[in-house]
């Protein structure tokens, strides 16, 4: 076993199968290529975790494009690939190309488990009922070097207003199941900005990867939700013992920082009404 498990954690690639631009501006496939080129300097990587919203249109071709980029990149480094479902992903096409939405595998003694936090037709997340039972059953026996759980919706509060009703609803039961087992780390995406924090009764480390597609402006003024051009990834190192170590890495382009969208409160409310949690996400 290696001294430390090295994970390339990326999220929110938002690929299209027909070459469309995200918000009519961003070539997300080119952004992914740029991220992988930047990450190539890492050298050894044990696992690649892609934490959802891998497609924007949910098409078979978009998942094939993703697989065609990630599979050779990972194979060159002997790394396992782990895909998690996001709210933009379509389950049937996702599974048809990338495999099961929820799976468990051991990488160098560390168990990596994916959880489907999506709700069909909605942008908020939910892990309850059968999903929670499956997770508890999977975690019933400890892994040699502990467990990493990957899902799309972070089990921690959002930073910006748009995600108030698009967040993971009632994350407490999920975190309690993780805390009762050997979970050492939770990886997520969805927020389109990097966030390193902890959650749950045992303060499990949570790493939210920056998006490939664009970057949420966490300093947007109240009543606005803004995203700018910019792509990145997280390099996560999980030692055999001791704290998790995470670096956030950018994959620069000439137009980084240029506005992708700037939503006013009326537009934010409309999105929340159309695809958000109908009650308080709390």
Radius of gyration: 18 Å
For the record, give the distance between the C-alpha atoms at the N and C termini, rounded to a whole number. Answer: 41 Å
Provide the domain count. 1
Structural class by secondary-structure content: alpha/beta
Write out the CATH superfamily name.
Answer: Metallo-dependent phosphatases
The number of distinct β-strands equals 16
How many helical stretches?
6
Largest sheet: 6 strands, mixed
User: What is the mean predicted local confidence, pLDDT?
Assistant: 96
Global geometry: globular
Please state the oligomeric state of the protein chains shown.
single chain
Helix content: 10-25%
- The top level CATH class name: Alpha Beta
Which percent band covers the strand fraction? 25-35%
Here the CATH topology equals Purple Acid Phosphatase, chain A, domain 2
What is the CATH architecture assignment? 4-Layer Sandwich
Low-confidence stretches: none
Description:
The protein is α/β, with parallel strands linked by helices and 282 residues long. The chain has a single domain, classed as Metallo-dependent phosphatases (Purple Acid Phosphatase, chain A, domain 2, 4-Layer Sandwich). It contains 6 helices and 16 strands. The protein is globular.
Produce the secondary structure layout:
Blueprint: E1 4-10, H1 28-39, E2 47-51, H2 60-77, E3 80-84, H3 91-98, E4 104-107, E5 110-114, E6 125-126, H4 129-138, E7 147-150, E8 168-169, H5 172-179, E9 183-188, E10 195-199, E11 204-208, E12 215-216, E13 224-228, E14 232-239, E15 245-250, E16 259-264, H6 265-275
Parallel strand pairs: 1-2, 2-3, 5-7, 6-8, 7-9, 9-11
Antiparallel strand pairs: 1-14, 4-5, 10-11, 12-13, 13-16, 14-15
Helix pairs in contact: 1-2, 2-3
């Amino acid at each position: 076993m290696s001294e430390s498990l090295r994970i390339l954690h990326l999220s929110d690639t938002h690929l299209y199968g027909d070459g469309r631009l995200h918000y009519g501006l961003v070539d997300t496939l080119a952004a992914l290529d740029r991220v992988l080129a930047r990450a190539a300097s890492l050298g050894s990587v044990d696992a690649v975790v892609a934490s959802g919203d891998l497609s924007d249109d949910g098409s078979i071709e978009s998942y094939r494009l993703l697989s065609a980029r990630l599979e050779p990149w990972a194979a060159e480094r002997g790394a396992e690939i782990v895909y998690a479902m996001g709210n933009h992903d379509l389950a049937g096409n996702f599974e048809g190309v990338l495999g099961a939405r929820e799976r468990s595998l051991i990488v160098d003694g560390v168990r990596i488990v994916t959880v489907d936090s999506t709700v069909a037709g909605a942008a908020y997340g939910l892990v309850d009922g059968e999903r929670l039972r499956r997770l508890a059953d999977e975690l019933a026996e400890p892994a040699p070097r502990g467990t990493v759980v990957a899902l799309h919706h972070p089990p921690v509060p959002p930073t910006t207003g748009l995600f108030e009703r698009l967040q993971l609803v009632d994350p407490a039961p999920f975190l309690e199941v993780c805390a009762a087992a050997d979970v050492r780390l939770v990886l997520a995406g969805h927020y389109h900005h990097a966030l390193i924090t902890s959650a749950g009764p045992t303060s499990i480390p949570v790493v939210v990867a920056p998006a490939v597609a664009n970057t949420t402006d966490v300093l947007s003024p109240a009543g606005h939700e803004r995203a700018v051009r910019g792509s990145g990834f997280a390099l996560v190192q999980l030692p055999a013992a001791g704290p998790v170590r995470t670096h956030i890495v950018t994959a620069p382009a000439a137009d980084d920082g240029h506005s992708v969208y700037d939503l006013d409160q009326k537009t934010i409310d409309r999105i929340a009404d159309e695809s958000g949690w109908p009650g308080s996400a709390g």
